[in-house]
Amino acid sequence: MQDLLFIFKEKRAALEECIEDYTAPIFIVGVVGDFNDSNSVTTLSATIPKEELIIRNNKYPDWLYKVFQNSLNGDSILYIKDFQDISQEEQKLFIDIICENSISSEELPENLKIIINSKYECPIIPEIREVVQYFKF
Q: N or C: more exposed end of the chain, with fewer CB within 10 A?
């Protein structure tokens, strides 16, 4: 049991280093715990209604306001959880965010780090799979 705890701590430290040296969206497979302990984190469930993934009539969704607000204070993290709970068709709704760093043609902050979490391995569409760094717990 202690070996498993040690391995988990090592992987968590490696993940934190990967986040620090961020170069591309990070796709984490496994249970890592939430990132809510930081004020710079905006948590978004992948099961969010699709209307919340676009800007309509110049009205930003609440989570997007938080992303921009957090970016004013340094690095901002968008943590997309529950990715295993959506279909490959629904994953297409996240292409702009994950692959293009934009939403409804609006550029997301340059200092935004995107972390996607799936509790277990699930099929990922090629557009997303090609741009993410994988990290497995």
A: N
